[in-house]
Amino acid sequence: MPTTETTTTQAAPLDLAAAIDTAVSAAHTGAAILQSYAHHRADLVIDHKARNDLVSQADREAEAAIIESLQGRTPEFGIVAEETGGAEQGPATWYIDPLDGTTNFLHGIPHYAVSIALVAHAGTRVTGGGPLAEDTPVIGVVYDPCREELFTAVHGIGSWLNGRRIACSRTQSLNDAVLATGFPFRDFSFASQYMPMLQDAICTARGVRRMGAAALDLAWTACGRYDGYWEMGLAPWDVAAGTLILREAGGVCHDMHRQDPWPVGGRVVAGNPAIVEALHKLVAPHLHAP
To answer: Is 149 labeled as ligand-binding?
Structure first.
């Protein structure tokens, strides 16, 4: 009786140790370019992509350097970047924001960062685990060159600030919480939803802060400076790295509608588990269906 032999060849799992090293190196490369322009802002060529949506040669040159660094070491991964776009491909895709907080940077406000994440696609294996059931951020790097603060995270291993483990806050009540948020500034289509959320948060929380860099909002929530964070109208590259950094610090980072596996649609609710549930209850009465 004839037999059929089936051979299944599985791809090797992602090497997360190599990937975090690659991302950190690329972040430092991009940040060096930003800082070379930081004290010569008047010389920057600035373009308006849309109302209140600015891009400078600093953004573009930093992104080009980051992409070159990543492609040189991980040519098998896709790249999605803020200024040059791109597409998902291969077992995982890099999400790059070369300058999160462009408006702060251009006005000399020292609060901006480089954000780089690796999102592994469903079915991809990572070191020490089986195939992922859904797209999942597995590497996160947010580097603040003004404070020389490097936030890093590796899926299943932890989050760090300059090599020291971090954890989100333990605040249990919105009344005791300091929250971060971001106002509508280029897309005002959701303002009618957001403004009542802000009103409720101002009246409920200990304080609400708007600093203008989503990647740092998530990283600061991960290390306990903020207790929670919510925002609408973001892009995937704004939140991919911070999502993992917060999750690996014991926090939660949700798609506001609780539909996507991570906030790829740019509507974020984040914080420690108790604060996230309270924030969901705060935003839900004002949130329209997606």
So the answer is: no
The helix (run of H) or strand (run of E) holding residue 139 is: strand 136-144
Closest CA to 257 of 227, 283, 222: 283
d(CA 233, CA 187): 7
What pairs with residue 253 in β-bridges?
A: 270
Digit-coded pLDDT (tens) for 99-123: 999 889 988 999 999 999 999 999 9
15 assigned to a ligand binding site = no
* Three-class DSSP category at 127: coil
What is the tens place of the pLDDT at every residue in 73-100?
Answer: 999 999 999 888 899 999 999 999 999 9
**Residue 100 marked as a ligand binder:** yes
Q: What does DSSP assign to residue 223?
A: T
Domains of the chain plus CATH, in order, are: 16-164 (3.30.540.10), 174-286 (3.40.190.80)
Predicted local distance difference test score (pLDDT) of residue 7: 30
Angle subtended at Cα 100 by Cα 274 and Cα 18, rounded to the nearest 5 degrees: 80
Give the CA diameter of the chain.
81
Taking Cα atoms as reference points, which of 212, 224, 215, 214 lies closest to residue 251? 224
CA distances from residue 44 to 6, 41, 58, 199 in whole angstroms, order as listed: 60, 5, 7, 37
Task: Report DSSP state, residue 133.
Answer: S
176 among annotated binding-site residues: no
Question: Annotated binding residue at 59?
Answer: no
pLDDT digits (tens, 9 = 90+) for 5-42: 333 336 789 999 999 999 999 999 999 999 988 887 77
**83 within 8 A of 96, measured Cβ to Cβ:** no
> Using CA atoms, how far apart are residues 3 and 33, in angstroms rounded to an integer?
61
- Cβ distance 98 to 63 under 8 Å? yes
Q: 51: alpha, beta or left, given left = phi > 0 and alpha = psi -120 to 50? A: beta
pTM recorded for the entire structure: 0.92
